[in-house]
Amino acid sequence: VQLQASGGGLVQPGGSLRLSCAASGFTFGSYGLSWIRQAPGKGPEWVSTIKSGAGSTYYLDSVKGRFTISRDNAKNTLYLQMNSLKPEDTAVYYCTTGGSWGQGTQLTVSS
Questions:
Q1: For 42-71, how does the pLDDT look when each residue is reduced to its tens digit (9 = 90+)?
Q2: Among candidates 64, 63, 69, 1, which has minimal Cα distance to 30?
Q3: C-alpha 17: how far from its chain's center?
Q4: CB atoms within 10 A of CB 25
């Protein structure tokens, strides 16, 4: 299993960004996928999950209404659209499936 997150960067509060996660080494469309983040000095925090099949989605309360998880099974890619970003969203974001984590991407929200 290989998972490579990308798309992070520096954004001002209130801004938007879309993270991507390119996946390989497994049957992408058959698995649920999640985004997890880790802020400096803190433990990992689950952010969002999208199931396989009908693609039901689930979100951490603090990101509901601001973040949208989606997947493109044809491209083996997972996305996280993040709007109305807050400084507390600053973290390294990882995509995960079946206990496997990929390389993360850093998001910094700061003015």
A1: 999 999 999 998 889 999 999 999 999 999
A2: 1
A3: 11
A4: 10
